Amino acid sequence: MAVNRFVVLWTMTIAMSGCTVGPAYHRPDAPASDAFKEPPPDGWKVAQPNDAIPRGAWWTLYNSAELNQLEEQVGISNQNVIAAMAQYQEARDQIRIARAALFPTITTAPAATVTRANIAARSTSGAVVSGGGFSGTVVDYSLPVDLSYQADVWGSVRNSVRAATNSAEASAADLENVRLTYEAQLAQVYFELHGLDGDADLLQTTLQLYGESLQLTKDRLEAGTVSGADVAQAQAQFDATHAQWLDVGVARAQYEHAIAVLIGQPPSTLTIPPSLIRMLPPSVPIGVPSTLLERRPDITAAERRVAAANAQIGVAMSAFYPTLTLNASGGFASTALSTLLTWPSRFWAVGPTLAATLFEGGRRRAQVNLQEAAYDAAVANYRQTVLTTFQQVEDQLAALRILEREAAAEDQAVKAAQDALDIVNEQYKAGTVDYLQVITAQTTLLQDRRTALDILTRRLAASVLLVEALGGGWDVSTLPNP
Q: Is the pLDDT of residue 22 over 90?
């Protein structure tokens, strides 16, 4: 009969656990538009449903085997990515910790207590009888099992589990955002490094031409057709250009070291052979602004933190209601080990406890207000993340469009500078202009060529930043279920 009452009490407790207090969660509205303000560069188009950035390995857009090999090491060996992986695992473990409160706690404390007693015998008058009484040792054995279960009547535990789950989802999105950030950083540094290789190659070629011009002025000096000032000017130009060529090596070495650290290697172990950039930025599938809400891991992380903050409001609100705890204990107790596990040695007790806080000076209301303020802050952070995302996409679209036009203009400037130098060289050989005009024309051509190389490098870097701004091929459907 007692067992039946226990079962009924347990069933009622479970049934009462169906209540949940706290606000229902709805994704906050986010500012968005139907189309991007900046049009894509010439030849690009808005992505169709079947078009997409390659999922995961977005860098394959650039068709570089060397870049592919380097990028694959970021997710494996980059220490910041590894740290983000560990933080995600911590968040998953927090779910398990929160979920454990949904189950009863069962403990046991076996004991064997030894008691020695000395008991004196007394006469009927109450006087102590000499030599009477007895003494002995008594051993009590016990094997208790205690059960305690706090019913989740108002959903405090379930809201805690929900908050931990949402936080773990945010951590998973953070992991993808960290991975994307360092992958994009590697691609940028990679193109900047090889952009410097283009600078070095241009300067080396220019040095050969300047060397020929220097020798020409020396020959003309020996022939008596020019003064020593022309030779000095040619020598100064050659030496200054040589210094620029050497200076490129400083930045290149730093970029190479940065790549080594990004792939988790000591700088001394990595050597990247010089190579010239011979590609134009690939066409990146852009899509429409609304898809960014699903394609950016940092937006997803911010939205999941809003959901977690909403669940924490429910946890705080549940403190206004009483807690119901079911306690049960049972086991065996005996003075003889041989009879400890027998039916007559059994004992048990069961009873619920209802506890409520009657007054604590507004602490619970303040806790609810605190969680509501945290929710409002999370919503604002989410919306700001969305706005920043749109800004980043617009920035890179504008950069690519303008740099494309700038590259065309700079190509014309290089052609004009080359024509001007050819004319001045002929005039110098004819003796109609001094060598200063040759130096000026050569310097102009070198600057225009270096600017053209710099624009190409910036276009590739901007395309990488655009891919990053678009989420790098990630979308919320790949978010793991914690």
A: no
